Amino acid sequence: AQTPVKVTVTGAAGQIGYALLFRIASGQLLGADVPVKLSLLEIPQAVKAAAGTAMELDDCAFPLLSGIEVTDDANKAFDGTSVALLVGARPRTAGMERGDLLQANGGIFGPQGKAINDNAADDIRVLVVGNPANTNALIAQQHAPDVPAERFTAMTRLDHNRALSQLAAKLQVPVSEVRKMTIWGNHSATQYPDLFHAEVGGKIAAEQVDDAWLRDTFIPTVAKRGAAIIEARGASSAASAANAAIDHVYDWVNGTEWTSAAIPSDGSYGVPEGLISSFPVASRDGKWEIIQGLEIDAFSRERIDASVRELEEERAAVRELGLI
Ligand code: NAX
């Protein structure tokens, strides 16, 4: 039998953690034939709650789950791990400035990056879900100089899936008929969901919807969907975020022709090198590759640039705070 793959989930006692862990243990993260060992990392106050979730995982008797550990020690949690899902983060609370938010998250993602650097397996893949996800991923990456930079990624797959769903509903087609969707930039309200390369029935999506819908309905609906979920549920997206994290890692490991992921820029499409920005990507041989050669018109250029500018500002702010 195959050796179990260790998967670490931070913020394991939170609501995304609760929606994520059972799906990982059932084989949906890596594949139905890959046994997994789970490590649940939490802050000391939440270790007991995470241990309760571990009890429930035991009670599912998942055939692929070969062990569970619960800890508040990052070195232990990341020891020998191959997949790190960094979900736990410091949320923005009332009256908090951006600098305070970045500072608080730097205090989490810097040490976790170092613990990954010092302890993880050679094939480590990191997905940051906790917000501000792109910049938290950058902070973790900068504290892990021995890990190849491209192993640090941030999640825009939820935005991607939201865009697929909104477009499919508009054109009254199954989501499976939408191809080549792309989210560009930051996982924030400035993100740019691009319909000029997306295709439905082999034809460009932007040509099948009117300009006003694309500009005034589609883009803001996708970009502000997180806030709309909070408004409706009284809590932020959890199951859909967990689902997107599963999609991201599954495709990274098993391959895909086209999706969206925030990965370190190599300078493609004018995105400054090193920024962890969302691109159209394929995954081949276990590696993300930016899809090249797309023509970017003025409308798209302006929106990509605005989101990338925000990422540059966040990078400048964390540099100034000495977090990277
Ligand atoms: P919860 O507040 O339910 O859970 C967060 C958990 O993280 C808590 O149990 C907390 O104790 C733990 N935690 C805090 N600091 C930690 C540390 N240093 N080490 C380990 N654990 C730590 O939040 P939840 O709804 O699960 O959301 C988690 C994060 O995902 C938030 O930052 C949220 O903003 C972000 N999201 C990102 C999305 C994306 O698309 N990239 C979408 C969904 C979600 O909003």
Supply database-style keywords:
324 residues, 3-stranded antiparallel sheet, alpha/beta, binds ligand NAX, single chain, 6-stranded parallel sheet, 14 strands
Structure commentary:
Its EC number is 1.1.1.37. It comes from Streptosporangium saharense. Belongs to the LDH/MDH superfamily. MDH type 2 family. Helix content is 42%, strand content 20%. It is built from ten helices and 14 strands. Helix 1 crosses helix 9 and helix 5 crosses helix 10. The structure holds ligand NAX. The site of ligand NAX has 28 residues, from helix 1.
Number of helices: 10
* Helix content class: 40-55%
- What is the global morphology? globular
Main sheet makeup: 6 strands, parallel
The total of beta strands comes to: 14
**SSE pattern, N- to C-terminal:** EHEHEHEHEHEHEEEEEHHHEEEH
Unreliable spans are none
- The proportion of strand residues reads 15-25%
Overall mean pLDDT score?
Answer: 97
Give the N-terminus to C-terminus distance in angstroms: 42 Å
Protein topology:
Layout: E1 5-10, H1 15-25, E2 36-41, H2 47-60, E3 65-71, H3 74-77, E4 83-86, H4 98-119, E5 125-128, H5 133-142, E6 152-154, H6 157-171, E7 178-179, E8 182-184, E9 192-194, E10 199-200, E11 203-204, H7 211-223, H8 225-233, H9 239-254, E12 256-264, E13 276-284, E14 287-290, H10 298-320
Parallel strand pairs: 1-2, 1-4, 2-3, 4-5, 5-6
Antiparallel strand pairs: 7-10, 8-9, 10-11, 12-13, 13-14
Helix pairs in contact: 1-9, 4-5, 5-10, 6-7
Ligand NAX binds next to helix 1.
